[in-house]
Design brief:
178 residues, mainly alpha, two-stranded antiparallel ribbon, 4 strands, 12% strand
Length: 178
């Protein structure tokens, strides 16, 4: 009987010891799993940041190339109108605009010739309007903005008809002259 009790007690102690070892091993494995998961999350985050930085670098490189083309186009242009055409095409491409126009300003400050650029949109005619955006820019020297062309009374009907939803106009100054 004593041997049986001793044997049972020994088996129980060994079982308790083994269960403790199994529990310790499971806790260690769980801790290692959390560390691996955290490491994988950090690695994924670092890779995502690297991809983002590479993409941003490529965008900046494209912008720099576009800026260089603008500078080159402006320096090679033989007339202000030719320079406006080159400049507007490059700006339209750089900002992804569907339509853009650039109005040259005469020496007296009145609107002159206008250059237009159409990108991924069928060309359409835009008639200049009295009191339109170009005149407002010339008068104020400030950026003008039409947020919703369908509801804004300043919107040019030709642009609304062409499907342009919003647009802005800004003054370009060269040597302090618009």
């Amino acid at each position: 009987e004593m041997l049986r009790t001793l044997l049972t007690t020994s088996i129980a102690i060994i079982g308790i010891f083994l269960l403790a070892r199994i529990r310790d091993t499971m806790e260690m494995l769980e801790r290692q799993w959390r560390e691996i998961a955290a490491s994988a999350a950090l690695t994924a985050r670092a890779l995502n940041e690297r991809i983002h930085l590479l993409e941003e670098s490529a965008r900046q490189e494209q912008r720099m190339a576009s800026l260089y083309r603008m500078i080159a186009a402006v320096s090679w242009a033989k007339s202000p109108l030719e320079m406006a055409r080159e400049f507007l095409g490059l700006v339209t491409e750089a900002v992804g605009a569907e339509y853009a126009s650039l109005t040259l300003v005469r020496a007296g400050g009145s609107p002159g010739e206008r250059v237009e650029s159409f990108r991924e949109i069928a060309p359409f005619f835009v008639s200049p309007r009295r009191g339109g955006m170009a005149e407002a820019i010339l008068r104020t020297g400030q950026i003008q903005y039409v947020d919703d062309a369908k509801t804004d009374p300043k919107a040019n009907p030709d642009l609304v008809k062409a499907g342009i939803r919003s647009y802005l106009g800004l003054p370009l100054l060269v040597n302090g002259q618009m």
